[in-house]
Amino acid sequence: MDTKSTFKGTIISIQPRIRLTRSFDESSHTYPGYAITLEGELDNTNTTFSIGIGKTVHAKHQFKVNDIIPGECVPVPDPDTEPTQYYKVSKLKVISWYHH
Q: What is the pLDDT of residues 33-52, one digit of tens each?
């Protein structure tokens, strides 16, 4: 079972996650969602870290830079294959929206 970390942070960046796949002489790419970089607390330690979320989750919450979000996440098993440090995000919600 994956050990979950708890977090709460302010969004400082949102970028599309792109996965490139190469097979012989062909390459393709998919968009599995978004990479969100946060400044805040991860397991009660102040740090900057990144989480990966799916397109559906982003569509539901419409995250923006400076939103404050808490949740739970799991470290990615192979950092060389994922653009984020954490994934399998759960219990996610926006507790403070940034308004222009």
A: 999 999 999 999 999 999 99
Under a CB-based contact definition with an 8 Å cutoff, are residues 68 and 95 in contact? yes
Tell me which DSSP letter residue 61 carries. Answer: H
pLDDT tens per residue, range 54-68: 999 999 999 999 999
User: Which residues does 72 contact at the CB level (< 8 Å), separation at least 6?
Assistant: 4, 5, 6, 7, 89, 90, 91
C-alpha–C-alpha distance, residues 6 and 82, integer Å: 20
Q: Record the pTM.
A: 0.85
Q: Is the distance from CB of 62 to CB of 53 less than 8 angstroms?
A: no
All structural domains of the chain, each given as residue ranges with its CATH number in brackets, are: 5-90 (2.40.50)
